[in-house]
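Weekly sync, protein design subgroup
Attendees: M.S., D.O., the rotation student, P.L. (late)

Item 1: inverse folding check
M.S. brought a backbone from last month's batch and wanted to see whether the design step gives back something sensible before we order anything. D.O. pointed out we never logged the input encoding, so this time it goes straight into the notes. Structure tokens as presented (201 positions):
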């Protein structure tokens, strides 16, 4: 049996300001730093074989703080843009509430939560899944199948894409899926990579 822990980065400065972030490289907020440190405390007792992260600073910093907190800074770490957040295109940097006033709550919800509708100039969740899932299958799953304990630090939508596959969620179910910042999500998987259990720590 292997263990896979997913963690969405701690609150970023633009999460705090209620802005669409996407690929813009914004830092953690003070609260986000505390969330990452708290996640490290929740993961005390885990021994990770390796870790994966997006190339964005908020995920990298969360991963660094978690690994520092559990005294495992020496493990192999691979960073790849395949794990980056959805690219929100023309919405990046815009305030979500103001965008809802301009385009309507329903349209903004469709852009944020639907599976295959792209925001203007950006990626849908389907587009995000088409880079996250091949990366998971080629770079991460082989270690899962070896029985290793893996940590992935990434983003709300890149992790939604992965959770959708791990839990075999439908397009309708993923619409309501929200992954909180800084909350470690533990999966236990069998020797074929099938999920046996999952829970937030």
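Designed sequence read out in the meeting:
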């Amino acid at each position: 049996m292997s263990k896979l822990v997913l963690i969405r980065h701690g609150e970023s400065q633009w999460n705090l300001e209620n802005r669409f972030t996407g690929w813009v490289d914004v830092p953690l907020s003070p609260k986000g730093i505390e969330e990452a440190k708290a996640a490290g405390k929740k993961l005390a007792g885990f021994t990770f074989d390796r870790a994966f992260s997006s190339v964005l600073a908020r995920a990298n910093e969360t991963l660094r703080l978690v690994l520092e907190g559990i005294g495992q800074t020496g493990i192999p770490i691979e960073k790849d843009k395949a794990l980056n957040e959805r690219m929100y295109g023309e919405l990046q940097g815009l305030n979500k509430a103001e965008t809802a006033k301009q385009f309507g709550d329903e349209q903004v919800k469709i852009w944020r939560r639907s599976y295959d509708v792209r925001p203007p100039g950006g990626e849908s969740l389907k587009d995000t899944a088409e880079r996250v899932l091949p990366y998971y299958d080629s770079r991460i799953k082989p270690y899962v199948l070896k029985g290793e304990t893996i940590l992935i630090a990434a983003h709300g939508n890149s992790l939604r894409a992965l959770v959708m596959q791990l839990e075999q969620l439908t397009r309708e179910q993923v619409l309501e899926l929200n992954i909180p910042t800084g909350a470690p999500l533990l999966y236990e998987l069998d020797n074929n990579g099938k999920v046996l259990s999952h829970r937030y720590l």
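Discussion: The mean pLDDT is 96. The two ends are 18 Å apart (CA to CA).
Action: P.L. to compare against the previous round before Friday.
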